[in-house]
Protein: Transcriptional regulator
Amino acid sequence: MNTNITTEPVGKRDRLIRAARRSYYQLGAAQSTLKVIAQEAGVPLGNVYYYFPTKDDLALAVVTDTESCLTAALQSFEVNPDPRERITAYLDACAGQAELAVQYGCPVVTLSLDLHKIGSPVAALAAECVRVYQGWLERQLQALPVEDPAVLAEELFAGIQGAYAVSSATRDPDTFARQLTRLRERVRNLPAPEPELVEG
Structure:
């Protein structure tokens, strides 16, 4: 799933944040030096310190932007009246990012893992992004007549992350596609929502 949905021209600060997000995702937080990020953003290194005096300040901006873009991306699936279709649309979006998934894994979870590895003071905030992600799944399932939405959401989330992890470890996009197909079928076979919930 692409969590960076904005395409409008941006200023130096936003370019730095987006470059940092790409660098964290593709190189890892430890290897994402301010120099590398400045070059990626096309911004002089001295300007980085103007906007972000420390690397932790930039990491905080990355986490904040990630959560904002993630929330907007998830909300875009709310146009579907059936929660099962919302989750299916989300899985379709993940499938559309298969190449990146195989190379780098899930962008949201990878960010949290990397920041925890380096002991970043904003690692706990990155973990909140993961909870936003899983919480969205749980809210969709709460609108369905299923026995335990929280447990099912956790299982689906684990299945999605398993698909990311295994396909990334094996560099096999077919694994990613197969696992997402199985998850789609599981979601489609869930009981339909009550009519009033669909209409609402």
